[in-house]
Write a structure and sequence with these properties.
Helix content: over 70%
Low-confidence stretches: 513-521
Strand content: under 5%
Structural class: mainly alpha
Number of helices: 21
Radius of gyration: 25 Å
Strand order of the largest sheet: 1-2
Mean pLDDT: 81
Distance between the termini: 5 Å
Number of strands: 2
């Protein structure tokens, strides 16, 4: 009989603060670069297409290393692996800031992503292991708050730093924080007890790296290359499928898998990861679409858009308290909490889908506050249900799998939203353009009015007519975008319903509370 003890008081607080600070460092960095791409491309002489690799390289490295974090943590020891991940992330940040060439920057962003992926999953397992099973929801909520707040603050922070200093400082700012985090990690993060050093499954790692890396590349770059009309995307997709199938076969056949896929025999983990994938698609897809919608259809600036997203992220703090109370004090079934989260996620999307050209930030404020609550209600209980009963190295592997699927879900959500909006644009435009003809009195009257106004301002008849048609085309394009985005938000709201059968299938057995010291055989 083995006695498992958990840290308490100041020791637990320092451990949790260290882990969540490192996670926030990584999560903010996933979005902080986005608003600075124009300045970076101008500084290092890269095209718009080339500069996208700065984000793509980081995302690919992230999604490759996340599922392997559990194995690396067991092999090197959790303290050593986590501290090394923070150190690699910090060192790569420094080198990114010093980069003067596109491909040097892309290389260091890839290295930064490898460190960041290790931070993300390991910090989550550290936080969860700091609490006994009956209080694990507290750790999940703290981590979930970071998952939501980090990416939301990234664009605003990136915009401020770039506007007031230079793009190099979006990387340099990581140095003091990362150095302190590495010190605290080495001093306070404990190793897992009773973990044997695993054998390294090199063929499995190779298949995973090639398969997941290729799939992430397809999801990141497919939209800009017209998907399967591109030979490059087609070959990367075939490569992804081939190597992922080989990876699954390999991992199920050997005794020392790099990623323990046998954990999916746990029905709740299987269902929970499926739910994580869907939640990633819904939340990231809509988070990708709204800034574009606000800027292209409503004329907001990037800073306005970034600032608007902050209250919806900050609401996760009171939402965290509510979820904690519902789970720990009231003992509400987490499946009911997830269902409430679905409603609070779907309703704002339906409200946003009725946007008009006159919509402003006041129309979206309360829907985004409600969405902030809904996101936390959906995210937090899911992992708790999925990982119930798992501890130690199995818990670390399960968290890695869950994070990988949420990351892939996020990339898939962005890709699917982009495909839908592009297709809907064509459909809506063909529907609207039929109303602009000489047989429609309203359109001919508008064109005549524009032409007359332009002639009065000094243009010749032909020039004024051409300019009037351009104004009509511009108004049509803006209207088609607005309708397409409205439709995409409505589709996303209905997609939430796909989560219902998965939630109902998850098994939940209420556990009686126990003391902070649990007994395990």
């Amino acid at each position: 009989m083995e006695v498992i003890t958990y840290p308490t008081g100041a020791k637990r607080a320092i451990l949790v603060i260290t882990a969540i600070s490192c996670a926030l460092l990584e999560l903010i960095d996933t979005t902080v670069v986005n608003v600075s791409l124009r300045e970076i491309s101008g500084s290092i002489g890269a095209t718009t297409t080339e500069i996208a690799w700065v984000i793509t390289a980081y995302s690919i490295a992230n999604v490759i290393v996340i599922p392997l974090s559990g194995m690396f943590s067991n092999f090197f020891g959790r303290k050593t692996y986590f501290t090394s991940s923070v150190a690699i992330f910090t060192m790569a940040s420094l080198m990114c800031g010093f980069s003067t060439n596109l491909w040097v920057l892309v290389f260091w962003r890839f290295i930064q992503g490898l460190g960041g992926g290790g931070i993300l999953s390991t910090s989550q397992s550290i936080i969860m292991d700091a609490f006994p099973p009956h209080k694990r929801s507290t750790g999940l909520i703290i981590y979930g708050m970071g998952v939501i707040i980090g990416p939301s603050f990234g664009p605003l922070l990136g915009g401020y730093i770039t506007d007031n200093f230079s793009w190099h400082w979006i990387f340099f700012i990581n140095i003091p924080i990362g150095t302190m985090a590495a010190y605290l990690s080495w001093k306070h993060v404990p190793d897992l007890s009773g973990v044997e050093k695993p054998r390294i499954d090199w063929p499995g790692i190779f298949c995973l790296v090639v398969g997941i890396g290729s799939l992430q590349y397809v999801l990141e770059e497919g939209s800009s290359k017209d998907w399967f009309d591109s030979t490059e995307i087609t070959w990367f997709f075939i490569t992804a499928v081939t190597f992922m199938v080989a990876f699954v076969i390999r991992e199920l056949r050997i005794d020392y898998p790099a990623v323990n896929l046998r954990l999916y025999r746990n029905f709740n983990l299987l269902m929970g990861n499926g739910l994580n994938l869907l939640i990633g698609i819904i939340l990231n897809g809509t988070l990708f679409a709204f800034p574009l919608f606000a800027q292209l259809s409503l004329g907001w600036t990037a800073t306005q858009t970034g600032a608007f997203m902050i209250p919806g992220a900050m609401i996760s703090i009171p939402a965290m308290i509510v979820v904690k109370t519902l789970q720990e004090k009231i003992g509400l079934n987490p499946k009911i909490i997830i269902m409430l989260g679905m409603v609070m996620t779907a309703v704002p999307l339906i409200l946003i889908s009725f946007s008009s050209p006159d919509s402003n930030s006041s129309n979206f404020f309360w829907p985004f506050i409600l969405r902030g609550f809904g996101a936390l209600f959906m995210l937090m209980p899911v992992l708790g249900l999925a990982t119930a009963g798992l501890t130690g190295k199995d818990l670390a592997q399960a968290i890695g799998l869950s994070n990988m699927l949420r990351q892939l879900g996020g990339a898939l959500g962005v890709a699917l939203m982009g495909i839908y909006i592009n297709q809907e644009n064509a459909v809506v435009r063909s529907s609207l353009i039929g109303n602009i003809s000489q047989y429609n009195p309203q359109s001919t009257e508008t064109i005549t009015s524009y032409t007359q106004t332009l002639q009065n301002s000094g243009m010749g008849p032909d020039e004024a007519t051409s300019a009037a048609h351009q104004l009509i085309d511009s108004a049509l394009s803006k209207q088609q975008l607005l309708i397409s985005y409205d439709h995409s938000f409505l589709i996303a709201a209905f997609t939430v319903l796909l989560c219902v059968p998965i939630i109902l299938a998850i098994r939940y057995k209420k556990q009686p509370p126990s003391k902070d010291m649990d007994m395990a055989h």
